Amino acid sequence: MIDTIDVASQNEEDFRQYLIKNHRDKPLPLIGRCYNCDDPTKGNFCCMECGEDWEKRKYFKSQKIKE
Ligand SMILES: [Zn+2]
Q1: In this predicted model, what pLDDT tens digit does every residue of 4-51 receive, in sequence order?
Q2: 35: burial class by Cβ within 10 Å (0-12, 13-18, 19+)?
Q3: DSSP state of 58
Q4: Which of 16, 24, 41, 56 would suit a FRET pair with 6, their CA atoms being 20 to 30 Å apart?
Q5: Ligand 1 centroid, distance to 21 Cα (angstroms)
Q6: Which residue ranges make up each domain of the chain?
């Protein structure tokens, strides 16, 4: 069984690489709301933290599929 918190810290560097790789070539469609917290915003996210949070969740979700 994998401890989620442990995995998170172990994969922090992997995640950074993933962010750098995926952040630019895949623009998200603008929906008028923050993808992370649903606040109204002109961009995809209302703030940088939300953007990172959302990417992180997406990343760890994709990691979980392997189990
Ligand atoms: Zn937000």
Answers
A1: 666 566 678 887 887 777 666 567 899 999 999 999 999 999 999 999
A2: buried
A3: H
A4: 24
A5: 22
A6: 4-64
